[in-house]
Design a protein that fits this description.
The complex is a heterotrimer of chains A (about 350), B (about 325) and C (about 110). With about 350 residues, chain A is α/β, with parallel strands linked by helices. Chain A has two domains: about 15-145, Glutathione S-transferase Yfyf (Class Pi), Chain A, domain 2, CATH 1.20.1050; about 155-330, Rossmann fold, CATH 3.40.50.11810. Chain A has 16 helices and eight strands. In chain A, the strands form two sheets. Chain A has a four-stranded parallel beta sheet. In chain A, strands 6-5-7-8 form a four-stranded parallel beta sheet, with helices on both faces. Chain A is globular. In chain A, about 45% of the residues are buried. Chain B has two domains: about 5-105 and about 265-335, FAD/NAD(P)-binding domain; about 110-265, FAD/NAD(P)-binding domain (3-Layer(bba) Sandwich). Chain B is built from seven helices and 20 strands. Chain B has helices at about 10-25, 55-60, 130-140, 170-185, 205-215, 270-275, 315-335; strands at about 5-10, 25-30, 45, 50-55, 70, 75-80, 85-90, 95-100, 100-105, 110, 125-130, 150-155, 190-195, 220-225, 225-230, 235-245, 250-255, 255-260, 265, 305. In chain B, helix 1 packs across helix 7 (about 315-335) and helix 4 (about 170-185) runs parallel beside helix 5. With about 110 residues, chain C is mainly α. Chain C is about 40% helix and about 0% strand. Chain C contains six helices and one strand. The longest helix of chain C has 12 residues, at about 95-105. The chains are: A alpha/beta (about 350), B alpha/beta (about 325), C mainly alpha (about 110). The interface of B and C includes residues 214, 221, 243 and 249 of B. Strand 17 of chain B pairs parallel with strand 1 of chain C.
């Protein structure tokens, strides 16, 4: 592999990401799947790096799940998005950061639609006024939380207590990076690194000492979707996509997986159990499974947070083997204590 | 009327035009922006469909013109046209006064890196048809190490809205089959696949080449586009394509993938069109006075075209056009007197 | 085993890396013209049985080259050997003989 080739492509898809003063919106489901991820993100940016990230209790879902499951039409979705923007304007912010990747996709899609069809934007402004008497300005910059961590990766590396190095062999950890589909597949220019070789997670891993693995199904969807997953009988389709990814990454012997979407790590983590039950096969070293992390959890581990404060105990695939490899100290007895 | 004629471009079109000009008694000046004559022909090994040597062909084109003025590493800076003659300033500060100009600027090859999903410049074993042709000439390329399975991807950069090139580049299908046969001669135990959308075998003996490729060399043809290329743990290429004839996705592991890069417009076509007061078409190649009856003439007085500057062409078409262009120019100048 | 209510979907992807080319090689030896097929479909278009059955020689040749042998045989079994396909093949393949060779090579199972 010729790395300069990838770097040339990365340099063509650069995205402007502001350093500070963001309006933060949370995800509907992330706090259930990965309880401490958002809390860790805010802790890192507010307390460790002293930046201004504001959130309000009045914000709602972006409507993405409903929209992608065909339960609400696009107009309703855009009105919900408009209300979120109105809250941002009322709080005096211009930079918008979303925690969930589907949200990021929804906001990007909305802003692009309004750019190409200004009459739509007018209609939505009218809708919002009629429904809530609010007005909004469009955000100047839209980022995803992983973009922000990507921007701050060197600052995090400077404060790192642990690096992504396997302490038993001295080699960098072999990391599989999985980007959520809504990040750059829809609008490649809105993602760092474009659609084919996204750089947002690669940049983080490289800054923190790990080694990224390129495998044939790197860009394959994990199968989450929404429509097919919500109906139980269809879940086999979602499962097969994840199965395909695991079969492809296994020969490369990855130590861990990092993702930047709420649904993807959920699937990659939980489906390993289902595949083990159905096929009798487990992946990873010593068939212990490949632990899956969100980027906030990895940032937290690198900065030295206690693993149980990061919510790692709710992962289905055990993370202890990786913690041992990284040389992170943890108390087994405290794992499930509140 | 001055007998001086400027030929812009020192490729096969320019060389043949200069030769014809000499035969008819004109004084030709060739201006070439690169450091040597021959254009893209200097890169090829053998020409389709009868495997004629490219270097011998180029030598035959170069031989008659060795007493013609050639300016290498030079470009046009400005052109002043008045009353049937042009005063041309070159980048080497020489000014020429000519009665007509033949634009033989040719084409550029598509930059295969732009098709990111094919991984040219990222994966070691992905090469272009130009790289392969160079391998045939020089017999060494550290990316080609005893390949057992080889693939050819047609239409890279051609017929593709995503890279803003709608045109078909005409020569790539027959080149792919030619190269597939040649590579099978060098590696007879290999399996060779061609991934095509259509097979454009329009010329004389092209269909025979296709039949030979199938029956003599056992080349496999798969109709369908390649969607992406990646590397497996051994460094081999995992190629995914659509097999349209069976309506199923297809996967194959290859040791070498050759991208058939197309002909695209030169980047400086726009600036040349401004200098010479001619127009470019929607595809970026130059517009002619009439695509049927006057396809070697520009829509400005005294400007003529030869070769791929007006669109993708095969080599024999280019040579013939250069001859026709000089005749058109000669007829035009004879009327001017 | 736990009953999840769903199961892994089988992949319909053709994997050219691993299919047993043994019988295809035998067929190619007794029918050297097989490789000349350009999948134009003239044979399928002129087939007498095409209106009423799934017989399709073009598909059969394609499936054999993709390692889907059983499906291929099922698509050619009912052929009545009328010979209309041989009349129209632009590559000059003796398709009638090809059909008999396919059945001989692949229907041993």
């Amino acid at each position: 592999m010729i790395v300069n080739g990838k770097q040339k492509i990365w340099s063509e898809y650069q995205k402007e990401i502001p350093d500070d003063h963001y309006f933060y919106v949370r995800s509907c489901i992330r706090q259930n799947f990965f309880p401490a991820s958002e809390k860790t993100f805010l802790d890192i940016v507010r307390n460790k790096l002293n930046l201004d990230f504001f959130e309000t209790e009045h914000h709602t879902t972006c409507g993405g799940i409903a929209y992608h499951s065909d339960t609400i039409p696009q107009e309703t979705l855009m009105t919900i998005v408009a209300r979120q923007f109105a809250l941002m304007t009322e709080s005096g912010y211009k930079n918008y950061v979303a925690s969930c990747i589907t949200s990021f996709g929804i906001y990007t899609e909305t802003l692009e639609t309004w750019q190409h069809f200004p009459e739509f934007e007018e209609k939505i402004r009218e809708n919002l006024w009629k429904a809530t008497k609010r007005e909004f300005n469009k955000p100047e910059y839209l980022a995803h939380a992983s973009d922000v961590i990507y921007k701050l990766r060197d600052k995090i590396a400077a404060r790192a207590k642990h690096r992504l190095i396997n302490k038993f062999t001295g080699e960098p950890l072999r990391v599989v990076e999985h980007i959520g589909c809504h990040y750059s597949k829809m609008f490649p220019s809105k993602g760092v690194g474009g659609a084919e070789y996204p750089y947002v997670l690669t940049g983080m891993i490289e800054a923190w000492g790990g080694e990224i693995i390129d495998y044939p199904e790197r860009r394959h969807c994990c199968g989450f979707g929404f429509r097919q997953y919500l109906v139980q009988a269809n879940r086999g389709y979602s499962l097969s996509n994840t199965h395909k990814k695991f079969e492809s990454m296994q020969p490369f012997k990855p130590d861990m997986i990092i993702t930047n979407c709420p649904g993807c790590p959920y699937f990659l983590d939980r489906w390993q159990y289902v595949i083990a039950e159905m096929e009798g096969k487990t992946y990873g070293e010593n068939s212990q499974g490949i632990p899956v992390f969100t980027y906030e959890e990895v940032a937290g581990l690198v900065l030295g947070y206690d693993p149980w404060d990061l919510g790692l105990q709710v992962h289905q695939t055990d993370v202890e083997p990786l913690l041992d490899k990284m040389g992170i100290e943890y108390n087994k007895a405290d794992k499930y204590k509140i | 009327m001055s007998k001086d004629v400027l030929v812009i471009g020192g490729g096969p079109a320019g060389l043949e035009a200069a030769n014809q000009l000499k035969i008819l008694g004109y004084k030709a000046y060739i201006v070439e922006k690169s450091e040597k004559l021959g254009g893209h022909l200097a890169k090829w090994d053998r020409l389709f469909p009868e495997s004629i040597s490219a270097s011998e062909t180029l030598d035959k084109l170069l031989k008659p013109i060795n007493d013609i003025s050639v300016f290498l590493n030079s470009e046009i800076v400005s052109v002043n046209g008045t009353d049937g003659s042009f005063s041309v300033l070159l980048s080497n500060n020489i000014t020429l006064s000519v009665s007509s100009i033949i634009v033989a600027t040719g084409f550029s090859l598509f930059h295969a890196e732009k098709k990111e999903e094919y991984g040219y410049g990222i994966y070691d074993r992905v090469i272009t048809s130009v790289d392969l042709e160079n391998y045939f000439k020089k017999h060494s390329d550290n990316r080609i190490i005893n390949p057992k399975k080889i693939g050819f991807v047609h239409c890279v950069g051609s017929r593709d809205e995503k890279v803003c090139n709608r045109q078909c580049s005409k020569v790539c299908c027959v080149t792919a089959i030619k190269q597939a046969c040649e590579v099978k001669e060098i590696f007879p135990q290999s399996e060779v696949y061609c991934f095509y959308m259509d097979l454009r075998m329009y010329g004389r003996y092209y269909e025979d080449l296709y039949l030979e490729a199938q029956s003599k060399y056992g080349i496999r043809f798969i109709r369908g586009r390649v969607s992406e290329v990646s590397e497996d743990e051994n460094g081999k290429l995992v190629v995914k394509a659509e097999d349209t004839l069976s309506s199923k996705p297809l996967k194959v592991t290859l040791d070498l993938l050759v991208l058939m890069v197309g002909m695209v417009k030169n980047d400086d076509n726009e600036s040349i069109s401004n200098l010479l007061n001619i127009r470019v078409g929607e595809d970026g190649f130059f517009k002619t006075a009439n695509p049927i009856l006057r396809s070697t003439e520009g829509d400005s007085q005294g400007i003529f075209f030869a070769g791929a500057s007006t669109g993708p062409k095969t080599l024999p078409e280019t040579i013939n056009e250069a001859k026709a262009t000089v005749l058109s120019m000669h007829n035009y100048l004879s009327k001017q007197v | 085993m736990v009953d999840f209510g769903y199961s892994l979907s089988p992949s319909s992807r053709i994997n050219l890396d691993n299919f047993d080319q043994g019988r295809l090689t035998i067929l190619s030896k007794i029918e050297p013209d097989l490789i000349k097929c350009i999948a134009c479909g003239s044979c399928a278009a002129s087939c007498s049985a095409a209106n009423f059955t799934k017989i399709n020689l073009r598909k059969v040749i394609l499936l054999l080259h993709r390692g889907l042998d059983n499906e291929a045989v099922s698509l050619i079994e009912g052929c009545m050997l009328c010979g209309k396909c041989t009349l129209v093949c632009p590559r000059g393949i003796n398709t009638r003989n090809l059909i008999r060779s396919i059945l001989k090579t692949y229907k041993e199972v």
